[in-house]
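Q: What does the assembled structure look like for these inputs?
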Amino acid sequence: MDKPSIKMRVKEKGGAIWLRALIKHPMETGLRKDKETDVTIPAHYISDVVVEADGETVFSADWSTSISKNPFLFIKFYGSNGDTVRLTWKDNMGNSDSMEKTVGRK
Amino acid sequence: MERRYFLKDCAVIGAMGVACSTGLLTSSTAFATESDPFQATSVAAVLEALGIVDAKASDEIQITAPKIAENGGSVPVVVTSMLKGTTEILTIVANNPKPLAARNKFGKRAIPSISSRIKMGETTELIAVVKADDKYYLAKTNVKVTLGGCGG
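A:
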């Protein structure tokens, strides 16, 4: 992948870390058909998302095809500046990506 | 599917499967539906696959979603639980082909609130199920969709 698939922002606000992330992914439902060839497009979606802060899992999710294309995620958890936050996703076709950011540092 | 943490459910249902196939038990219609909650095709089947039987309605769960969604392909939904000891929030879109949209698990440090965007095929009921202290609670809201987000 040329461009990172994840855009992530972590910010400390009142003792909590606000994590906002946008993941670039088609999130195909497996129900759509190609308009020209009429062939069903196979399901292709992110199935697992994990957020870790300093190695501790603070959030994990199993997603289905009902999550929108290019998923957006906003969660909050207790933490402070200097924490290292890592977001990882995996999809049903074996692709994955992750991004790490340190809170309070550009 | 092995990546998902259905070990408990799978063990139970797997054992039932073995029992059925070996003739130890007469075929049980209760397991006629798919055992993976993400493959279930109705809200009742989703809850059954997850082993949720006694979810109580709760005011402590807040669902923020538009009353009318113009684009069903991307409906912003926020679910916040004010219940103590919340470890999981499940979002279920009742009328989608596969209703279970997400199973979000929260660690000790997390604040049990999730915002994301969900697809909705048609006007539907949105259900949030919260697991707190090993008990299940739920809340519902309706979203009117003017342009569907599933199929094509």
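The mean pLDDT of chain A is 90.
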